[in-house]
Amino acid sequence: MTAKKIKQEAVIIPADLFFYPISLTQPDQLLTQDELYRHYEPPRGRKVYMGNQDEFVSFENGIATVKLQLNDGSIYYLYLHVEKDELHTGCTCRMPQEKLCFHAFICLFNLTWLRETFNCQKLYWPNFYNEGNSRKYLNIKVSRRDIIVEVKPEYGLIYRSQIGFGLHSPPLLIESGDRTLLIKAGDTSVYAYALCFAPDAYRNRHYPILMPFHGKTDKSGLKVSAFTRFSLPDKEQKPSEDYLNQQQLNEISKTMYEIMRPLTYKSELRDEQVWCEAKATIFTLWKKALPFLADHPYNHTYLLYWFKYLREKPTKSFMQACRYNLECPTLSFMLTFHKDRFNLSVEVIIGSRIIAVKQKPHFFILDEQTGNCYLMNSVQDDGLLNWMLDSKNKITALKEDFEEFNENFLIGLAECYPIFFTDKRGSRTAYDYNLLKSGLGW
């Protein structure tokens, strides 16, 4: 491989220092030990690897500095800079004959030792290497064992040139009236249904399932005041059929339970393909159940942090009354410009009303203002909204990255969802890249 020198603008050390490039052939800019061994024949014997100590010193202008003390007491400084497909490594020994030196090998071996890989992506922040952008947008924490680079909370998720959103990529986008409820008398036993979900931070532990429960109404008969037990499919063979369509709802509940239970009880690493298929199936079951639930009284939501810890006795404080609404939420995206950056956010629209989303489990929006529960229009809408909210509903792209951001993300997004540009006066216009570019005088 032909060696090359790092770009002048990224250097914080003598400009003539040689940097050796190592290809990053794995996804997500991972450096593997196998790739390292292609550039330096690993020495045999344990002694050569023992007693060497390395520590991170700084991360400035895109270069991470590592202090290496070998087991013979000699000290070297290594400099790491990440490009999209390469890791560039420099050393104070100047790397004679422009070959990867032993000091660099030991440093990189130590970094890849624990998991046989090193995540170079955490050092890849193009267009944020200058001090102004770095201080404004990033929080950088350097410790002896690690470098942590995080986007400041007020900027949400930042678009990075050539890799987009990195490990936090969005889901794949594919183009695409009042009812009379049968209220029972007061102090009466009822058979009702709960939407059991894990809250935002824990939502990926399981998908929401429908679970019947036994309870008792208050004196008015308008709400459930006591929750006796869940009707678990594997423990209650003949569930109640007090209401019309109750048999269908019980069958849907049982199918959801049987899909989700074995997945959450497995101890090995989850099979993402199996979970993805389960997600699509359970979402389809919810679409079948929703018209029946909209006619059903005493619906509730139930906080269920761990599916495998679901017990027959409900926790009353986790129960919350709700009503299902058959309207589907739609997503609309807003783009704004702030001198040196663009911000993208999403609005959730139900009917003609924009609603604030504070709780967002999988599949549903829980409107705290009205107590209504809305099922998302599709799995794609659900995944995209979750991704946006997990990013604090703010995607940031620097002005100099906007052309790439438009090409790699906004064009595809606009094929599936409306995007509006909001100017300083608050006026909204349909997003058009060419019109926006000419309007801003680029």
Automatic annotation (TrEMBL):
<keyword id="KW-0479">Metal-binding</keyword>
<keyword id="KW-0863">Zinc-finger</keyword>
<feature type="domain" description="SWIM-type">
    <location>
        <begin position="76"/>
        <end position="112"/>
    </location>
</feature>
<protein>
    <recommendedName>
        <fullName>SWIM-type domain-containing protein</fullName>
    </recommendedName>
</protein>
<keyword id="KW-0862">Zinc</keyword>
<dbReference type="InterPro" id="IPR007527">
    <property type="entry name" value="Znf_SWIM"/>
</dbReference>
